[in-house]
Design brief:
By secondary structure, this protein is an alpha+beta fold. It folds into two domains: 2-79, Glutaredoxin (3-Layer(aba) Sandwich); 87-193, Glutathione S-transferase Yfyf (Class Pi), Chain A, domain 2 (Up-down Bundle), CATH 1.20.1050.10. It is 53% helix and 6% strand. It is globular, with a radius of gyration of 17 Å.
């Protein structure tokens, strides 16, 4: 399989961590691409017309699969790793994964505002509104999701760990750990997994 991704995209990192945790590394060749919403660069537009990564081309050369959540479900089905539980246990995992992805989306929009919009057009209140989404989501995890995080590893664990790593990578000065000791302790442990270390952005 071919995985089009980038060393710094958190959505791609989520998939790369899953690949390693599921034992699929020998079956996947990771192809590094680069681009932005304003300039597609080497993004695989022929595999994802939306111009987003990651995008996965299956072994059989079938139509590419894109959107990290879709790719992750596909890879879990392929590997049988069980990162998405069955029955009623699935819904909390999907909800926490969606929360983690929402953190990433807000954090990415903050980066785009600074990098892609001319300085005279940047809107600080809008940036802070995105950070408030992050803060609310982190508070929710600290307040109601720690029990799930202490259980067997799921895709929600990976997604959240990647989201927290991205906050450190791009928004470290904002110190998301403040007033969230349980989440900070959990992240410190999960970040030491070999799959997380191997995919850490430079």
């Amino acid at each position: 399989m071919l995985l089009y991704t980038s060393p710094t995209t958190p959505f791609g990192r989520k998939v790369m961590v899953q690949i390693r945790e599921s034992g699929l590394s020998p079956r996947v060749r990771e192809i590094s691409v680069a681009g932005s919403p304003l300039e597609p660069g080497s993004l695989p537009l022929d595999h994802n017309p939306l111009g987003k990564i990651p995008a996965l081309v299956p072994d059989d050369g079938a139509t590419a699969i894109y959107d990290s959540r879709v790719i992750c479900r596909y890879l879990d089905d392929l590997s049988g790793a069980g990162l998405y539980p069955k029955g009623e246990a699935l819904w909390p995992v999907l909800t926490l994964e969606a929360t983690a992805d929402g953190i990433l989306e807000a954090a990415l929009l903050m980066v785009y505002e600074d990098r892609l919009r001319p300085e005279s057009l940047r809107h600080a209140p809008w940036v802070e509104a995105q950070w408030q989404k992050v803060e609310r989501a982190l508070d929710a995890v600290e307040g109601r999701w720690m029990g799930l995080l202490q259980g067997p590893m799921t895709m929600a664990h990976i997604a959240l760990a990647v989201a927290l790593g991205y906050l450190d990578f791009r928004h470290g000065a904002r110190d998301w750990r403040q007033a969230r000791p349980q989440l900070a302790a959990w992240e410190a442990g999960f970040a030491m997994r070999p799959a997380m270390i191997d995919t850490r952005p430079a």
